[in-house]
Amino acid sequence: MMRILLVEDEESLRDTLKLNLELENYEVVDTANGKTALKYIQEQHFDLLILDVMLPEVDGFQIAEQVRLTNREVPILMLTAKDASIDRITGLKKGADDYLTKPYVLEELLLRIQNLIKRTSKKPDNTPEIYEFGGNRVNFATYEATGVNGEVTLTKKEAMLLKLLIDRKNDVVSRQQILQSVWGYDVYPSTRTIDNFILSFRKYFEQDPHDPKFFLSIRGVGYKFVG
Length: 227
What we know:
- 42% of the residues lie in helices and 22% in strands.
- It is an alpha/beta fold.
- It has 2 domains: 3-121, Response regulator (Rossmann fold), CATH 3.40.50; 130-225, Orthogonal Bundle (Arc Repressor Mutant, subunit A).
- Helix 2 (34-43) runs parallel beside helix 3 (60-70) and helix 6 (156-167) packs across helix 7 (175-183).
């Protein structure tokens, strides 16, 4: 099920839109507060962000701008009453993929959402079956790898996590996003488990695990693979 973060401070509009999105079989997380939205984005995985512009504490433009610092892929739809050309241009410059003004036709909004999600979810897998980096070699079909100390066989979870990081090369991936993507939404272990997996990757693939070049820690957020 595709997950949408809906950030809208007008309660009646937020409730109505959330209901209609759920009827379309989307999982919707909603908030009226921009600061809370940034917290959710850091901790969870979303397939689409719907942002109002005028929000308490942190506005929609600021949210889009901060999201694009670490995530270039998640689609962002600005939904706002600010319909001046300069506002649309500002939204797009800050990283929005689409901009729809209020009042809107529900059918048009749903089509825009559908198109944005389809565009990103059908992106081709950018990691080949056999991937090489820094003298290391990983075969994602067989889970076999050649690292700094020779041959190693990855577990399924290790292979899934490694592939996720490589797919998101140069992007920061939060621990919560990793857990949701690799272990699923409902039941997953503590974030410490991810730390242990990263330590294993450094042992397998880094010349100096204490001075990693490929698997970097981003304090307070998660990890980044640098190819």
